[in-house]
Protein 1
Amino acid sequence: MKKELISEWFRNLQLDICNSLEIIDGEGNFREDEWTRSGGGGGYSRVINNGNLLEKGGVNYSQVHGATPQKILEALQLKKSQFYATGVSIVLHSKNPHVPIMHMNVRYFEMSDGTWWFGGGIDLTPIYASEKQAFFFHNELKKACDKYDTSYYQKFKKWADDYFFIKHRNETRGIGGIFFDRLTEPGEDSKAPIFEFVKEIGNTFIPVYSTIVEENRSIQFDESQKEWQFLRRGRYAEFNLVYDQGTKFGLDTNGRTESILMSLPPQAKWKYDFHPEEGTPEWQTQSLLIKGIDWINR
Amino acid sequence: MKKELISEWFRNLQLDICNSLEIIDGEGNFREDEWTRSGGGGGYSRVINNGNLLEKGGVNYSQVHGATPQKILEALQLKKSQFYATGVSIVLHSKNPHVPIMHMNVRYFEMSDGTWWFGGGIDLTPIYASEKQAFFFHNELKKACDKYDTSYYQKFKKWADDYFFIKHRNETRGIGGIFFDRLTEPGEDSKAPIFEFVKEIGNTFIPVYSTIVEENRSIQFDESQKEWQFLRRGRYAEFNLVYDQGTKFGLDTNGRTESILMSLPPQAKWKYDFHPEEGTPEWQTQSLLIKGIDWINR
């Protein structure tokens, strides 16, 4: 399978997702910026702002190639080589604190020595966590995974718990999801089935997001709930700037900063030593930000 | 000179600065939290919130010791040893966007092999930069430096330009200041004069800050100026989470997260691909966020 076909599929996924999000939003429109990378390739960044639902949303597509940057060679323990990387990355921040932040990334790498792999992940960051919503989210991801390999969900769910973790806070970014990297098998024939799995994940985003949105977008909210949303967004910014591997790679390799940092929240707050009052919905959410919860069989 | 005398002086500096800041603020009071470090030592964190002038301010004092954490040994290229570290660290965010963010850190390290050094820095991050203010700020720092070594200011000013730099934005955090590290001389006798220089820097903070405050605190501001302040604070958060060495060390060595991240702004915003309109005061400020400006002889 030619790498160009994979990036073409990713570009179409970006456009399809943006179309669906405009329909879901009902008001906002995506603005598209094309950019080129001096070392080779480029991408299209699509951003929506101040919509009816979405306060800030970014859907990035990129297809970059060239000499592998030194920092990536070191991080991935690779020999000097040419690389090709393509993918789609999404982060959606909604106005209403009852609608969670949702993130997805799907990506494909190919090196000049012939090695290749897929990676990706979806995770949900509710401002107000609900076990019912977490069950739905994880169950949908499990169904998508199970179509390809019944061992995937459990493995990738644990990976997400470990990856989407704010170590210095000793708390997870949200209620997790799935995360996988370096997904490959020997032989060129094995690429198509893995790509089918990645497509399945990509296609899962909109149905899952729209269901969660429709169930929550009409719930009223007040200033104190916006305040809690701003504090949770502060944690989201901490994760993205301190731990996110995509952000790190992007910044280390002189990527387009505005596209890399599109994932940052429109607004965030930090309050010294803030702890929600016991028994409140905020406290309830905080208590669920731990690794290892089996949301499906709870 | 005993290390305990140095940390005692730092603790008194923290208390003096907090007293002065309460007088300058006129309304807010510092809250003090004592904390202990499991590996040895601890500190006092002092925070002020929602004052008349200060929206959020943190003045940290710490005196920690014990086995040197692995990450610090690697970063400083040291052999396995015991360490002793003490210092004061300040970041002040004011409500009024015409009052700049100001930061200072003074610190002392001593290793069990007898090596010791001082470090420190002061830098100013105006939301609205003014050449007159930048001249005053740098000239005061130069006067403080010149009392001890006329080569210090130029050297430490350049160091600050390089250190307080947001690489991925290709812009400085503010109009700079001074930064120095590993300041030492052979022989125990040389410690006292260097400590005198560090004291001078510590004692420079309040007179300089209060002068800048008094000149700007009465200037009226509107929503659009607060908006610009929130965007600049977004950059401040980026610097602190991505580049700040103190933050990195603190998080890597399992320090007290709330004390380490006290420097984060109370509120920040990120707008995709925002550029101030040419000729505006915001654009003027942006144009001054570059390395190498000689503020004194401009």
Protein 2
Amino acid sequence: MTTSLPNTQPADPVDPRLAECSATPDVRPALFSPAEYDRRLQAVRRTMDHQGLGALVVTDPANIFYLTGYDAWSFYTPQMLFVPDEGDMLLFLREMDANGAFRTSWLPPDQIVGYPERYVHRPHLHPFDWVAFALRRRGRIAPAARGCVGLEMDSHFFSPKGYRSLVNALPEWTLVDSFELVNWARAVKSDAEIQYMRTAARVTTAAMQAAIDAIEPGAPQNRVAAQIARAQAEGVGDAWGDFPAIVPMLPTGASADTPHLTWSDRVLREGDAVVVELAGAHRRYHVPLARTVMLGPPSDELLRLEAAVAAGLQAVLDTVAEGVPVQELASAWNWSLAEHGLEKHSRLGYSIGIGYPPDWGERTISIRTEDESVLAENMTFHVICGMWMTGYGYEVSESVRVTRTGVETFTSFPRALIRK
Amino acid sequence: MTTSLPNTQPADPVDPRLAECSATPDVRPALFSPAEYDRRLQAVRRTMDHQGLGALVVTDPANIFYLTGYDAWSFYTPQMLFVPDEGDMLLFLREMDANGAFRTSWLPPDQIVGYPERYVHRPHLHPFDWVAFALRRRGRIAPAARGCVGLEMDSHFFSPKGYRSLVNALPEWTLVDSFELVNWARAVKSDAEIQYMRTAARVTTAAMQAAIDAIEPGAPQNRVAAQIARAQAEGVGDAWGDFPAIVPMLPTGASADTPHLTWSDRVLREGDAVVVELAGAHRRYHVPLARTVMLGPPSDELLRLEAAVAAGLQAVLDTVAEGVPVQELASAWNWSLAEHGLEKHSRLGYSIGIGYPPDWGERTISIRTEDESVLAENMTFHVICGMWMTGYGYEVSESVRVTRTGVETFTSFPRALIRK
């Protein structure tokens, strides 16, 4: 398999315009080499074979991006990348989005199929009714059924209605959960991916600095969010900012005891601790970062928390290296925190990389004692020490790359409570 | 049913911290009156009764917000609002987010239940396994099974895995698709909701102006996006900006033939037509708007498109009034466009209001000839005349409110091609 440049080959009958586009500009260059896309597909197919899958149905936009480069805000209507164990992949998406796949993915037009607009948001139809028939019409049903067909049963944009469409329309298929198969293939990054993450980290640093500059008594939260959002898109020089998968979080004052509240016009006051959690993104690769900004003198309990978290985070970073079980990171954290009389119930971090809303995590490795993964070089994590206490909270995080002997942090922001 | 202020009643055993929070600040005031929340629930229950449902399982974050006020970026892990035909609703969400529900929803603590962290992102568990047992333990299974139990089978954040958890754990329940039941209840806005949308429209106007100011030859797309994002959060005075459900879209030049591409660092040039599609949001209510900005003299074909779209949009707005079938709007558009020798395959617009990523549409009424809805006062739509031609495109839209005799547009931006 090689990546193909747009050509003049006739496209699927559904969207004849594709063939006419071949001479137009504004086709994005591929983000990765043909060899890298080929390696990704081969790795996915090896796991498919291992799990007894004759085909895989991919619906997670991050996984579709990983395998094809397709990148657009089109995932609010159903999309499917059909990955057979051999032969061409097929990308099914809404008719009006087929051109977008032509412009951003490496797939040749005959592997991009638009489903008709009349299947969008209809109570008694689902686009996958049409897609199932399109697969049948192309003779792609039987070959795929050499084994089971894997489905991403917990993908955000694959609904039970879409699932039942496939169950009803493809009775020959034995459907099984693929268990984040492609997400797992994403866990170890290539050098090219690491480069994109280092570029994203420059956006992250600029956005965190914009946050710290904007946080002051009298500023409403939404004005702080505005400066972060500006910096996240603006980036720095050639490190241009892509949209982050999650908006900036600014848990403030007493409400910093809960992590996922978004901003309002709540005015910052002297005495507030403001938690800032954000990511810089570049070409869909994310580097998240959290810091806590204190307006005025911190309370004794916040200072104790700062010291405990600093020690715990350092203990975790000191533990990271290729070959170390992930649960040892969690243990290092738990032991260190226990020495300060504290504990944290929620996971300490998660694997990161490509992100689409609503999440920049990969939904695979979580840093917690139940996780059985082992660290490998070029795995990347957001290690987030979020302590949500009663009526206050504190967060410090680092995004890191596992190296053969230790750890690389993507950013170099001071790791303490930031006093203003 | 009345809304309850936070009290000192013991919360669910899972999250004892809730009870301690009662005296803390940073609890958001309810966005709507207790009477309005009550009317919403009663309307939903009337439809449930009509559709033979003894209970409804709500997973769409916009629907949860509509019924409870709960607002946080927590929908990347499973959430469920259980709505029985009588008795208290129960909101299930991740343990760390229970405090957020306490801080933003009107629900009393005993109706907020956090599921344990160990159910998050585990391959062989799903939070709804736990939720199903929690419902059983509370004796909420049998009463709900007086009829069928409705599920939002096409909700973005309800996965097939979650669906199968409920199927397996609640065999007493007869599950049926609720067909966007709550979404339909949202179609006609209250006066209070219209006021939030008018406030959102002020954010929209500021964001569109920021876009037009930033679009110039030599500016990279991401710098334009940065200025839009800043204005979207900053807002204007008390019209503060909430995060929009979709990032700004900037289809540019030849790639304006496809609607959903996001920005890159592509530099704008003399001769580019730049489509801007964005929304202002205020307290989760959205007012979208699209315009096209031309750098330099427009081509003859773009001018013809401008004239055709202007006439078509005017024909649609002249048709809007309470009692008019939605398909007449589509017909008015189609006839007008046909007079210019054009046609548009995709829908002309959709119902709007509350939005969470990835969509600000309500997924109910679409303006197209297949739609059988009839316009009612205080329905609100994004009428989007998006023409994606071969190698270029043009968009103009209006967000509108249906009145008894006609139409109110939320913004008053000049409706022509904007020349710079």
Protein 3
Amino acid sequence: MNMSDKRVYLYDSTLRDGQQTQGVDFSAADKTAIAKALDELSIDYIEGGWPGANPTDDAFFANPPKLKNSKLTAFGMTRRAGRSASNDPGLASLAQNAPIVCMVGKSWDFQVTEALGIELDENLAMIADSIAHLKTKVSEVMFDAEHFFDGYKANRDYALSAIKAAYEAGARWVVLCDTNGGTLPDEIFDIVTDVCSQIPGAHVGIHCHNDTENAVANSLAAVRAGARQVQGTLNGLGERCGNANLISIIPTLMLKMGFDVGVSKDQLTQLRRISHILDERLNREPTRQAAYVGDSAFAHKGGLHVSAVEKNPACYEHVEPELVGNQRHILVSDQAGRSNILARFREIGVDVDPKSEAVGKLVENVKQREFDGYAYDGAEASFELLARKAMGELDRYFRVTSFRVIDERRWGDEQDEQVITMSEATVKVVVGDDQFMSVAEGNGPVNALDAALRKVLLTVPEYRDAVEQIELIDYKVRIITRGDGTRAVTRVMIESRDAEGNNWATVGVSTNIIEASYNALRDSITYKLFKSGVRSQHG
Amino acid sequence: MNMSDKRVYLYDSTLRDGQQTQGVDFSAADKTAIAKALDELSIDYIEGGWPGANPTDDAFFANPPKLKNSKLTAFGMTRRAGRSASNDPGLASLAQNAPIVCMVGKSWDFQVTEALGIELDENLAMIADSIAHLKTKVSEVMFDAEHFFDGYKANRDYALSAIKAAYEAGARWVVLCDTNGGTLPDEIFDIVTDVCSQIPGAHVGIHCHNDTENAVANSLAAVRAGARQVQGTLNGLGERCGNANLISIIPTLMLKMGFDVGVSKDQLTQLRRISHILDERLNREPTRQAAYVGDSAFAHKGGLHVSAVEKNPACYEHVEPELVGNQRHILVSDQAGRSNILARFREIGVDVDPKSEAVGKLVENVKQREFDGYAYDGAEASFELLARKAMGELDRYFRVTSFRVIDERRWGDEQDEQVITMSEATVKVVVGDDQFMSVAEGNGPVNALDAALRKVLLTVPEYRDAVEQIELIDYKVRIITRGDGTRAVTRVMIESRDAEGNNWATVGVSTNIIEASYNALRDSITYKLFKSGVRSQHG
């Protein structure tokens, strides 16, 4: 093959192999939405599923998405033993469903004789017949050699004869699958190098699994050895430990190895968004530490690092975050030196004079609070309030003078039938010269307290619009001091959202979970009022 | 170097580099617990932190854990420019804190001139002086060459001269750091090969980050090139995208590459447990698809796979799950779920007849509860109570007919001085024919409820001894349903201990955190009474 060939084709299997993941069950609508996202990224091949295997895949192929850049591929199996290709219902169904077909077959002699229980030659005939037959029905056929690397190690000649049978019968690609995911990068490199001496690399693909956490490295090793198609999934979704993660492979091939993967630089800036589309469909929190696209991928916490990053980002960033649609974050923490905290202030637009006394106090205050268990990483809104208060920029909007929460349970009989269940909160709040008192119920003490506080603030005309918008979307509790039973110090983090789609996170800490929750709630409401430019009525 | 040298040393940086992770803030108690877990696994070096950098690390080194197998290491920096090593307060503090010291320094010329703003030769002197000085104070000194790979690519000779300065001054190890995490495995291999031609590989270490999802592969490439120390963290914890994941590297080095990493086969079977200890400390759900140790790592979903796996596990498993303390999971059939639950019953010593109707109901009950959010993994005591109750083996000891918790806060003035703070719980409890009522205060609602309930049970002479012993040592809260604000379903897990040193964990689930906590508390007390062989007075 021509090693200078810099075009690597991408093949996405999120909708087929990704579907095998524990806990994943795509609907046809999910599949369509994900296919459209892959199309936006210009992935060459989108494997839609296995027609005939389940009702979802049938529904998807019956009404396939219109794709602008990508080609839809159907997955299936070579013909059954002892049956002609033209007479095989599986192959017939495949031909009807998509312009491109990828068929899986055996290349490990042990699997042929043990799992299929057939002659080795019959397996080669099944491969060749199926490829040759479908080649006359669809525009492109490829062959997935299941267990190729285990097969090669057990019987090199037979494994090679299986993929040669496919190639010689007209397969556009023969794809080498590390089905069990146990092969290491140097083995992959050596074996693919050998394969590419027999079949041009421009027709060789690689399909890896992450069982040793090497799926990305294995895919890159295969490309270095000459393979020119890479199969994988978004975010590494897939059975067991997942498939090779295309979200990591794409920028590495493009930005570090100089390959053309059919994705433009503009499309690459959508990488983070595309990764998040899959998480949304799965109702999962995106992985913070995901390579390239995670929230933490360009986050800087250590104090030493931060001052260096500000001087020159190349000191601690391997690529520019903007290239993959990500951005730099400066984090605040116990680790942080002063420069860290000051950088964070600048990021949120608080103008600070590093020499002022107020700033010095603020830095000490942050450090002390973090020692107490506050964690301002991921609770930027509470951090901003603290800073603006220290700078004298924050008005007080209301003052809670007292609250009381009552939580009651009564059971009726020996069978523990619960007959009374009640959570009630009372708050007294001062706004300006007015004192308000309100009471509300909830399905738990914090929910009741939240309801009672809002009830008051909604009666203040100037606050109403802002408060009405606040929606609490996540509530996390963490015990900080351990080994102390129910006396432990608790950290509550609340994430809120408004009608314009802004998200913000606030934090509260106390030995009392109700009080910790109240602190985080208070910050959440105050932050929204501040950001909405509402004038304080408290005076 | 002698390439046949099969001993690779492991260096864990969970407590130092792992601490840099967004959202991670270890307490000194966390650090001690994690160090003990690492010691159980026989990790050669445990980096405890950076003495002098923050109060937590100071507290940890002031009272270091007693280690049986591992050696504690302190992290620090080479001497400052323009100061003698013997006069550097950082070095002096390092020498006092641990028998082994690892110092970081620059090896990239650009960083020396730009970030430090000093002459290249002064940097070499800083390295050599610091190593030579500390070598006289502690038993072992190593050098972390920050940005080594970027430095090598920019100026090979200077990067090599930096590590040679450290080696020649007496560093036991020079550790090559891919600080930005952007180097690819083939580059690592080539560069480490070159380094090992100058410094014996038996003195060369590797420290990788996962910014391209290649940290594991990079570490393995360095070992293949001759490096004999691998630095990493548990579960790949660490700044940005994390450090190299020792949990993946250890079994690969041992089981696939034939290296001795100082971990015995028996210790290797603790790998999954050790991985989970870190997650527990971080109050994180373990990653299902983690290589080797994840719940999904040996889970089989596809119907085709499952029958093949049952015939011969080697068809779809790259190693035996038991070697790393994991197990095979068959996900498809209800039948598999059932035998799984039955196996768990047998594990805790509950003798079940699979054909009995009670068992059928129990299995359905467990499945329903797990669907509701109960997690009996890690809450074996609650699971056992459920099983024994279904089998008619569990007496009821008491019946709470009602409880009420009142939580109140009052503030005095505009400065938010808190003047009244009160958590009070009232319970009504029936034991046999007697009805008790009691009230207690606590520093939070759950603590008050716990106190009130104990107050009653301590008055029952037959229960007194057992109840007196119960100590709640951990209390964890996790929100299960997301995106639902303070209405979310909450899971509370309580860990208890008795005077004989037995530990047990119980679980409660509810939308109301007080009720979830009560359920877990009730189970904890019931379990202790049952295990103590106390006869029920409830009748």
Protein 4
Amino acid sequence: MKRVEPVKVALLGCGVVGAEVTRLLHEQAADLTARIGAPLELVGIGVRRPGRDRGGLPVDSTLFTADVLSLVKRDDVDIVIEVVGGIEPARTWLVEALTRGKGVVTANKALLAEDGPTLHDAAADGGADLYYEAAVAGAIPLLRPLRESLHGDRITRVTGIVNGTTNYILSAMDDSGASFAEALEQATSLGYAEADPTADVEGFDAAAKAAILASLAFHTRVRAADVYREGVTEVTAADVASARAMGCTIKLLCIAERGPGNGTGPGSVSVRVYPAMIPRNHPLASVGDAFNAVFVEAEAAGQLMFYGRGAGGAPTASAILGDLVAVARHRLAGVRAASESAYADLRIRPIGEAWTRYHISLDVADRAGVLATVAGVFAKHNVSIATVRQSGRDEDAVLVIVTHMAQDAALAATVAELRELDTVRAVAGVLRVEGE
Amino acid sequence: MKRVEPVKVALLGCGVVGAEVTRLLHEQAADLTARIGAPLELVGIGVRRPGRDRGGLPVDSTLFTADVLSLVKRDDVDIVIEVVGGIEPARTWLVEALTRGKGVVTANKALLAEDGPTLHDAAADGGADLYYEAAVAGAIPLLRPLRESLHGDRITRVTGIVNGTTNYILSAMDDSGASFAEALEQATSLGYAEADPTADVEGFDAAAKAAILASLAFHTRVRAADVYREGVTEVTAADVASARAMGCTIKLLCIAERGPGNGTGPGSVSVRVYPAMIPRNHPLASVGDAFNAVFVEAEAAGQLMFYGRGAGGAPTASAILGDLVAVARHRLAGVRAASESAYADLRIRPIGEAWTRYHISLDVADRAGVLATVAGVFAKHNVSIATVRQSGRDEDAVLVIVTHMAQDAALAATVAELRELDTVRAVAGVLRVEGE
């Protein structure tokens, strides 16, 4: 068999994921060569501190360099893997690589969600592949199915648990009755939450992934800024107990949903991230611990679910290497994958136009006429009530109301007006309810 | 925008799935054109009876022809979709199409499992794409993730529920305590089982899918004949109750598992289909009704699960159209997908070498020394016992034994010897147990 020139790879970043990538490249070298048809050669690793001791990594220490831009520009580099994260300087490096025609494999969800179009445009200019399976739901093969397998179908809705940290926290609250603060502390001590957990618990991470999923599912450019976002910091133990009482559990969901257009328009899409109650018999309800899962509904395919580890060095590296094999094969064949598909260009609906249901807990004075007054507020906003449950008496009376489907604007206006009622001492909790 | 020549498609077969394909081609025409970059044109439909009334199909009646071979050979046909099924004449048609360089999209699991290499060789000869996502687990995007997303990883095990008919039957038995015959009748009346259910209930359908999955997961040519197969016809209500008593449920599983080689060899693969008990907390246990799910374990990715509808006209058509878009794009770009990957060529292990656990129910005489005699048989074959439970007394005594992991040959030899014991009146049930 004739000797085939290796495909040359530059790795940007060598933290947990990058180290795992070097390990897999080394351990799976023979298999990767057979699957690609040529060996992969790691020719450089861009890091901030090249001199740092990285004992145990199966790579030559001379490969490390702090001059990342020069590495990216090297003529002999065929493919760039980026696991640094953040907007800059990652964007500059990747745009440079793509416009020079180098394939790019990245796990950078923040950059893709904030400014994906710039990367896609650079890929189109350079005639280069841009792959990012690892950016959403770690090891779960999700983007390729959305990008390719379901291309003959019409996706109507994507509902996902895409943030492992918050899923761990909400699962712990559900299992043990812990408060948010207690569950967060537990997650931090186990390494599931970072020292500054803001990006996770405030839903920014999930919103970035929601933007990427929505873009692929609906052939429309959706950015993180287009995603309505609420985090989980205000979910209380009482909310969790209340969910349990109605046969539900609370999950931080990312939802991307096709909807009607404006009159004769081409339709619209609603993309949102918030904690919501879902019935315990929903396939997503049993996704515990730090696992991720994404539920996809399509007109012909029906309901599909993808489940697996959403984070961690090895799972993320698995997704990166899957992409790397695809890009390397394309280079050897002299082709590139289908580029970004954004032809549908659907209108992004604001949260007020989203259809959902509310679960509302009211602290009320237990006296005649309270329910009539409260119900009157719902009626005024054309929000239909599905169930009402009163617990406690006298000064401790609590009214729990679950609505039928209504537009979020009407539901929010209802809650705002309830807060003003004399007979309502406090709106103790408001959570959306998803899934029938 | 300049007018692009259409990609011309021939459809072979127009039953439930074929009709759904014509419907989707019609309804999604604008979206498909945008996603492919050229319109698709259905130029012929090969059927046995072209004159048959197919009211409501959105196609010109002149497209129908009984001369399928001529249709396949037509110079203007770019892509052939085959939804006829069976070995011949489908094989002849597809080999003809592939060697002429036409892309093929097929749902024909029987042909792929019986003689996949012939199709793959023809595809290689003709430089043509061969796609078959619809052949396994209907609409679930499964083959593409195995073929591509996980190519940088090392799959260790694939465990699937890939036959909807038997899953419906076993779920019904579990839910209601029905017998196999009652559950089959129910499945038939609801259209989940065919008039002749042999292919489903005897595990032939699942074995074909297991061969296809194992081939992709382990880069090795595995044929249906290589798959060890047991159906579900001998699963009794007592087995189901016994499974329930130990916190398990019974599912018809297809298992493809990497294993050691012979000494210094490159490893081996065990591929088998049989009903087995799995713990109720296993992700596959909650896959009810006629749904399919496939659980994949890989070294880096960890545990993944894919879930959805495994059969039905629309879900199958969704998978076919996803493949069709990929093949059409490749034709426009003048490329083809990576061909079959069978480089690993692992040895297929016989069932006797598979590691599993047995759940054995024995009708025994309730007298001193019985357990010692029975335990002696297990010890003789080096099979370690995990749990023993005795129920009933005197003439109705039943001994339920669950083993630790052992090779199937040793387990089978143990059961054979137990049947010969005077103190064992009958071996009432033997089922394998999978999942820890």
